[in-house]
Design a protein that fits this description.
This protein has about 210 residues and is mostly helical. Helices cover about 80% and strands about 0% of the residues. Helix 5 (about 140-170) crosses helix 6 and helix 5 (about 140-170) runs antiparallel to helix 7 (about 190-205). The chain has helices at about 5-15, 25-40, 45-80, 85-135, 140-170, 170-180, 190-205.
């Protein structure tokens, strides 16, 4: 796949697409292939592992979406489109309840597995950026990694503030989120840093001197 495309171009395009809505859906696939091919070229197993995990996470996300939509369609198709009284509605609900519970159990298990894959992908991608900065002597990979770390720290701070407000005064939390959106402005630095991280990663790939 993408055999005729240089890994530096593939990775750069992938990180550029990662900041474009809708186009970012396919970005992990391109980035994953680029990291894997970089690992094969440089002999770095960390790069290959990052690429494989990115592709696996992408495919798992597609499968999760297909399962979610299929579950909804399955429940709808299993529901008889007939008119009836309260007793019929209760009977239909009782008949569908085991199926819905089964779907929910699989859905939650899949969501947890997908979240674990996503977290592992973030960790490996971050490590790959630092390794690439050292192996390829690229300051842009290091800048991208630092931007990601700062963004993650700010996300943790944001979550801590939200939880603290929720516990201390739930009304204040809702008011801050609604009135002028001032509370949500705390996420602006995270958005900017995430944008910069992807731009730095794109520049790093485009300018990488890969042996």
């Amino acid at each position: 796949m993408f055999k005729g495309v240089e890994m530096s171009v593939l990775g750069g395009i992938g990180y550029v697409l990662n900041i474009i809505p809708l186009a970012n859906v396919v970005a992990p696939l391109l980035i994953g292939v680029a990291w894997y091919r970089m690992g094969s070229r440089t002999g770095q197993s960390l790069f290959r592992a990052t690429g494989v995990l990115m592709v696996v996470t992408f495919l798992a996300s597609v499968g999760f979406l297909v399962f979610f939509l299929g579950s909804i369609i399955g429940v709808i198709m299993s529901t008889p489109f007939v008119l009836g009284g309260e007793n019929l509605s209760t009977a239909v609900a009782a008949a569908l309840l085991p199926q819905i519970i089964g779907y929910l159990a699989v859905f939650l298990a899949a969501a947890v597995a997908l979240a674990a894959l996503g977290l592992a992908t973030v960790v490996l991608e971050l490590g790959s950026h630092f390794r690439a900065a050292r192996v390829l002597n690229s300051v842009w990979f290091r800048r991208a990694a630092v931007a990601r770390i700062i963004a993650l720290v700010l996300v943790l701070v944001f979550v801590a503030v939200v939880l603290a407000l929720a516990v201390a005064e739930p009304g204040a939390l809702m008011g801050a989120a609604v009135v002028g959106g001032n509370f949500l402005l705390l996420l602006l630095p995270v958005i900017v840093l995430s944008l910069l991280a992807n731009i730095f990663s794109a520049i790093a790939f485009f300018t990488a001197d890969i042996p």
